[in-house]
NAD(P) transhydrogenase subunit alpha part 1 (Arenimonas metalli CF5-1), 363 residues
Amino acid sequence: VSIVLVRESASGERRVAMSPETAKKFTALGARLLLQRGAGLPAHFTDAAYAGAEFTDDADAALAEADVLVCVQPPDNARLARMKPGAVVVGLLAPHADPARVDTLVSSRLTGFSLERLPRTTRAQAMDVLSSQAGMAGYKAVLIAAQLAPRYFPMLTTAAGTIRPSKVLIVGAGVAGLQAIATARRLGAQVEGFDVRPETREQIESLGGKFLDLGVSAAGEGGYARELTADERAEQQRRLAEHLKSVDVIVTTAAVPGRPAPKIITAAMVAGMKPGSVIVDLAAETGGNCELTRPGETIESGGVTLAGPLNLPSQGSLHASEMYARNVYNFLALSLKDGQLTLDWNDELIAKTCLAHAGERRA
Ligand code: NAD
């Protein structure tokens, strides 16, 4: 098989789906690699680092030859349509973001695997792009918060007196939230976290954070949270509003699969915070956990700075790409042997991620 990597076309996307390390592993499985020149550069992988790969300047020519296209975000639909029938596309295909994408996969008889649909099972962990990328997002979100804050994070004892550590609250303790807690702790802040899944208490505490108990528990299916009822939401908000008056920094990461981000921080809560407080809303991409968030912008409201950064994993493109590329490799390795690609439709990891195959819609 020919595995192809072309430059990412989505604006601001600096991650790449194949690293020099995974290129070597693909070659060892008998694959031929064809790369657009410079495809790895946004993640600081030079062409020379991809030992054994072939290169072209012409992305369309590479796509036309691909048996497998690996990507972070997919090329636009017109480009996808130029791939040959039967070719496989693996990446974050985000079918809900662009319904025409699945139509294109179907009409062009492409096989599309959307890695964000992988079940969160033990076997899928090595391919779990949501986890590998969320970790980077949580880390960067805390660094942005520290950068925007007019306060130190750590406690400092100086000749000019003692500085109290910042109080940082992490909202949502999934993969991103737990990495945010660990990062804020390493910077010396006093860290609290909360989540609606009760098992997060122990996870937050094991990272040196304090569990903020808002009296709401809403575990859903598959290890995820469910949406809160109106009563639960009111209770969470009443307790939170009081608590936020003493918090210096909030990083929000709460999400419910397939739903817009839950609105947890209201405008009134922001108004009640101390001047100089900072909120970084990691959920900006899906609408934000704060009512005032403007995706992609940093604004000020009553002395509180509010950032809604987009695509944070891309800011850590080198490590995010190394991990993403390993996830992609581990997924394709299920089907690659002796240079041949054989898809096992009885494997739930293959079946559940598939959006389209052989001219049929699978999702
Ligand atoms: P996510 O991105 O869907 O959500 C982030 C967090 O927000 C979750 O912890 C969720 O409980 C929380 N949340 C939702 N609504 C909230 C609210 N109203 N208030 C406060 N918090 C709220 O989650 P994720 O990071 O993708 O992880 C979800 C779960 O999957 C976690 O338990 C994680 O450990 C688990 N997981 C398992 C595997 C595996 O076993 N293979 C891999 C990755 C993640």
